[in-house]
Amino acid sequence: MFPKVFIIILNWNNWPDTLECLESLKNNDYPNYQVVIVDNGSKEKFQISDSGIKVIYNKKNLGFSGGNNVGIKYALEHEADYVLLLNNDTIVSQSFLSKLIEIGESDNDFGILGPKIYFTDEPKRIWFAGGQINWLYNRGTMKGYGEIDKGQYNSSEISAKGGPASGWQQAEYITGCCLLIKKEVIKKIGLMPEEYFLYYEDTDWSLKAQKAGFKCIFVPEARIWHKCSKSSIEGSSSYIYYHIRNGLIMARKYAPWYIKPLVHLNAWQRIIKQMIKLIFFPKKRIWAKYILLGIKDFYFKKYDKYENWN
């Protein structure tokens, strides 16, 4: 008996990558899954000819968590056992889902699972090999990022139940690029948090699941490749703004009590540093502006989407 998996693929103005991702899924060897594409308010309403694929069209961009939540609700309404969030700019290996399910089914406490992820243009270079939290800088970091894979992240942990483990490691969070979650976890902790709009919602969800007694598991034998985001370029104003604001939101909710004062101290140090940039370094004013906006909106509790991009 194979658990039913709903694969949620979020599309926003990038149907070519979505179609390539779907093509790679055809080679997937897991026998019991349903693909659900959630189009997040794209300008082009592309029609999928495959009747076996469910397409949901949102009227506007609901953000990463809001868009995925539409698909997650559909999955739960149709008796999903697992939900897999999969970025549309990924290419999957044949056994990635089978490997994830195998480990997920081995322990009831394994609530959220993720594969090893590589860069598409450098197939042996790691993008993600498990997530860690740096509370001093209130951000998530990806183990192995940029390293050539030489098996350094393949070692297995020993099961807490006493038996030898096969191909898994515990992580502090799993990236939303490819995240497998059990229905029991969603029913206990709820849908993805939507106040972030973009970035850190996967980290928040992972931390919330762990507070509820579940574990986040990295499965190195499950492999996919990631083209990296084309909808939000690293270093852009949106990237800077959301990372600053959302890192502070996450720290407010989950940072250890002894770290929280340092988080606020670091925020005020950033304010001073960015004010200096605004006055004396014209070439850095754009970055400084959006860092300051992110900090301001955090303290004034202006969450969700920032509407006033230039």
Low-pLDDT parts are none
Overall average residue pLDDT: 92
**Cα-to-Cα separation, first versus last residue:** 53 Å
CATH topology (fold) name of the largest domain = Spore Coat Polysaccharide Biosynthesis Protein SpsA, Chain A
Question: Proportion of β residues?
Answer: 15-25%
Structural class computed from helices and strand pairing: alpha/beta
Tally of individual domains: 2
Report the principal-axis shape: globular
Overall CATH architecture of the largest domain: Alpha-Beta Complex
Task: Give the C-level CATH assignment of the largest domain.
Answer: Alpha Beta
Helix content: 25-40%
Model description:
With 310 residues, this protein is an alpha/beta fold. It has two domains: 222 residues, Spore Coat Polysaccharide Biosynthesis Protein SpsA, Chain A, CATH 3.90.550.60; 63 residues. The chain contains eight helices and twelve strands. The strands form two sheets. Strands 1, 2, 3, 4, 5, 6, 7, 10, 11 and 12 form a ten-stranded mixed sheet that branches. Strands 8-9 form a two-stranded antiparallel ribbon. Helix 6 runs parallel beside helix 8 and helix 7 packs antiparallel against helix 8. The longest helix has 21 residues.
In a few lines, what is going on in this structure?
By secondary structure, the protein is of the alpha/beta class. Helices cover 35% and strands 23% of the residues. It folds into 2 domains: 222 residues, Spore Coat Polysaccharide Biosynthesis Protein SpsA, Chain A (Alpha-Beta Complex), CATH 3.90.550; 63 residues.
